[in-house]
Amino acid sequence: MSTTRKYAGLALVAALGVGTLSACGDGEAKDKPSAGASDAPKSKTVTLVSHDSFNVSDAVLKEFEQRSGYTVKKLKSGDAGAALNQEILTKGSPRGDVFFGVDNTLLSRALDNGIFTPYEAKGLAEVKPEFVLDKEHRVTPIDSGDICVNYDKKYFADKKIAPPQTLDDLIKPEYKDLLVTENAATSSPGLGFLLASVGKYGEDGWKDYWTKLKANGVEVVDGWEQAYNERFSGSAGGKKAKGDRPLVVSYASSPPVEVLYGEPKPAEAPTGVSAGTCFRQIEFAGLLKGAKNEEGGKALLDFLISKKFQEDMPLNMFVNPVVKNAALPELFTKHGVVIEKPENVAPETIAKNREQWVKAWSSLAVK
Fold it and tell me: Is residue 159 left, alpha or beta, with left meaning phi > 0 and alpha meaning psi from -120 to 50?
């Protein structure tokens, strides 16, 4: 999840989507001041640890800094899984104040390791209830995105074949040898697509589905970049690489990004989304236990669910806002797809079964 955004919005640009942090500049202790020390200076630097895909407009971030009096340091730490691992290893003595980028595929691991301090962010009442997965408010929902099969519109128009719309469609004979997906063991969208099948067919049925998908010629590659920008015939990169797979596992936000960065910019997205194939990723942020600047961290969490930041996110991280009153940019409303019924799997179920699911999947899909 998260990893990519998440997300491969940035990955389309950086390859179409988890984050790092800048070191804390200020090291003032957060211990309770002793008598006579009430005037001790407080840190005015707040450090955000994130995966590499975190991004915000300079003007929006500067407005927060001017209004709050805090300077934000960003420490990016690789993909979501690697970034989370570092915070677990430094539990209690974190590298920053707020961590952004843990998604619902990794959430239970983060919560079970106790790396966050509960905080109910101001504005949380404006977040859509379906995104609030932790009732103790150890994490705050920040964004959502859908991992879905994308299709090459021109290919299906030329062949006079309707593009697939559901997971069931993908095992039909007319789509044999057309799909490329990412390895669930090494790729966030690959894992998301596996989880979509678990959500759809259940723990007793997903293996049979993948057996059929394998028989129907699904191709598995290591990561999103290779799948989308080399093997997929519908993307700008795939066209240059002469990709011959008109179906790929990517994101619901990929078509708007193809328009945004198209040269020349197309009037219509060259790719579409199979809306019945999707798994929803939700990304969260939390106040790190032992944060040096706890008050600054709380202010930063408030900012991350503010309307200003939420409306800034789509064109910076290619994800969807989670607050009720945030509007999507025209690029998303015109060229994007609203996924009404994505597949979901409870975070605790993922945490309990992820390793064995991926191992079983590897034996079925990677041979």
Answer: alpha
Tokens of 194: 């596996």
Residues 6+ apart with CB under 8 A from 296: 43, 44, 45, 46, 68, 70, 97
The number of helix segments (H) and strand segments (E) in the chain equals: 15, 11
- Answer for the pair 320, 278: CB distance below 8 angstroms, yes or no: no
Q: What is the pLDDT of residues 259-316, one digit of tens each?
A: 999 988 999 999 999 999 999 999 999 999 999 999 999 999 999 999 999 999 999 9
Query: What is the C-alpha separation between 75 and 217, in angstroms, rounded?
Result: 41
Sequence-ordered alpha helix ranges (H) in 138-243: 153-159, 188-201, 206-215, 224-226, 236-240
Integer Cα distance of 145 and 331 in angstroms = 16
- What's the pTM value of the predicted model, to 2 decimals? 0.84
Cβ neighbours around 201 below 10 Å, total? 17
> What does the alpha-carbon distance between residue 33 and residue 140 come to, in Å, rounded to a whole number?
29
In 3D space, the residue among 121, 99, 96, 145 whose CA is nearest the CA of residue 254 turns out to be: 145
For residue 2, pLDDT beyond 70: no
